[in-house]
Specification:
globular; two-stranded antiparallel sheet; single chain; Semap_dom; 1 helix; mainly beta; semaphorin receptor binding; chemorepellent activity; Semap_dom_sf
Length: 63
């Protein structure tokens, strides 16, 4: 499974290198990750949020 942090569209722009992960102590169901682009392309960064329930659902499915 892969965490997807991208800008959708006809030609999606992917942030594929995780720099940091943060989980707020008051929020048991989400976490946030800071991503950047690879050094060989356009430079950029993004913060994406993820639901722990969605991630658990992926791991409960077929691989």
């Amino acid at each position: 499974a892969r965490l997807n942090c991208s800008i959708p569209g006809e030609f999606p722009f992917y942030f594929n290198e995780i720099q940091h992960v943060y989980k707020h102590p008051d929020d048991e169901k989400k976490f946030y990750a800071v991503f950047s682009t690879s050094t060989n392309g356009l430079m950029g960064s993004a913060i994406c949020s993820y639901s722990l329930d969605s991630i658990q659902e992926v791991f409960n499915g077929k691989f």
